[in-house]
Design a protein that fits this description.
The protein is an alpha/beta fold and 337 residues long. The chain has 14 helices and 12 strands. α1 runs antiparallel to α11. The radius of gyration is 20 Å and the shape is globular. It binds pyridoxal-5'-phosphate.
Length: 337
């Protein structure tokens, strides 16, 4: 509890819960490459059902889920439209450059969404010698935009353009809890969607990618090509099932705590441009001229924080951050130089 460090660097720092560890120890397993791991199958079916898709695939990481979607859905000699600050475009060690024969074409996503009109324009531009887009990637919630969830009607407008949509739903359930939009409603306009069982949901390893059965079959083969074929992975999938069944509703606590942190930031730096009303999930991102000095000050008060871009601070709430941690962080922010 809060005697220890308040670690606000990332929700990837969460550790598996005692219930997960028990489920892992007791998991029934088999060779997943033979299709014989019942716990992996149960997880894939549970996620597919949750997002209303035909099939799902357990993968070691979110990065692999994004890269598989590129390999399966994007075609050679086309563009993949993605937000400039999206994980698939700006992070992942530029993996898209080696994993797809298509070319990323990035557009503005400062507020967390891409503009359907801009995407429609790019589709139309293909009739005027521009490269033809074959896929759009969205991120829901959008990490760099402060954990912003997509409005469902905007996602529907985007899908109505007719391109396949791939959703990086690393934190899909944060969006679900923040907006009240169901996971299946969010997934419906998208061809593929995945969610991290790690991060706020606390499982130690793994994400699940869902979509039409033929797309997921192909993704399974691509996963093998990438060296991601799994064997007795039921020990990991067991934690994932606990994550889906028991860790979603509590994300509301993380969101409430992030709102308190956002208030403290806005009070201390009214000119930093952070409107607490825009903090709807578990991320507080704000501009600061000297992040290093602020990080040192917070650390001296038992609070760990990080950066996500030059002069851009990030505070993240998660399962292992409690009210006392948040109170400590608020006081440390108030006294920051
Ligand atoms: C929005 C988003 N997408 C993808 C990823 C990649 O997930 P992983 O670290 O499991 O590869 C992350 C990781 O933090 C993320 O925040």
């Amino acid at each position: 509890m809060a005697g220890d460090i308040a670690d606000l660097r990332s929700d990837t720092l969460t550790r598996p819960t005692p219930a997960m560890r028990r489920a892992m120890a007791e998991a029934e397993v088999g060779d997943d490459a033979y299709g014989e791991d019942p716990t992996v199958k149960a997880l894939e079916e549970a996620y597919a059902e949750r997002v209303g898709k035909q099939a799902a695939l357990f993968v070691p990481s979110g990065t692999m889920a994004n890269q598989l979607a590129l390999r399966v859905l994007a075609s050679a000699g086309t563009t993949v439209i993605a937000g400039r600050g999206s994980h698939v475009a700006a992070f992942e060690a530029a993996a898209a450059g080696t994993n797809t024969p298509a070319q990323l074409f990035t557009i503005d996503d400062t507020a967390g969404t891409v503009d359907p009109a801009e995407v429609a324009w790019l589709v139309e531009a293909a009739e005027h010698h521009w490269a033809r887009p074959s896929l759009v990637c969205v991120e829901n919630t959008h990490m760099l935009a402060g954990g912003a969830p997509w409005p469902l009607d905007r996602l529907r407008s985007l899908a109505a353009i007719g391109l396949p949509v791939h959703a990086d739903g690393a934190r899909l359930f944060n969006a679900v809890v923040a907006t009240g939009t169901s996971a299946s409603a969010y997934a419906e306009p998208c061809t593929t969607v995945w969610t991290a069982l790690t991060k706020g949901l606390c499982a130690p390893i793994g994400s699940v990618l869902a979509g039409p059965a033929d797309v997921i079959d192909e993704a399974r083969t691509e996963r093998q090509r990438m060296g991601g074929q799994l064997r007795q992975a039921g020990v990991l999938a067991a934690a994932g099932l606990v994550a889906l069944d028991h860790m979603v509703d509590r994300l509301a606590d993380d969101h409430a705590r992030a709102a308190l942190l956002a208030e403290a930031v806005a009070e201390r730096w009214p000119d930093a441009g952070l409107d607490p009303a825009t903090v709807r999930t578990n991320m507080v991102i704000f501009a600061h001229p000297e992040p290093g000095a602020l990080i040192d000050h917070l650390a001296a008060h038992g609070v760990l924080a990080g950066t996500v871009a030059p002069r851009t601070m990030r505070l993240v709430t998660h399962h292992d951050v409690d009210d006392a941690h948040v109170e400590r962080a608020r006081r440390a922010l108030a006294s920051a130089p």
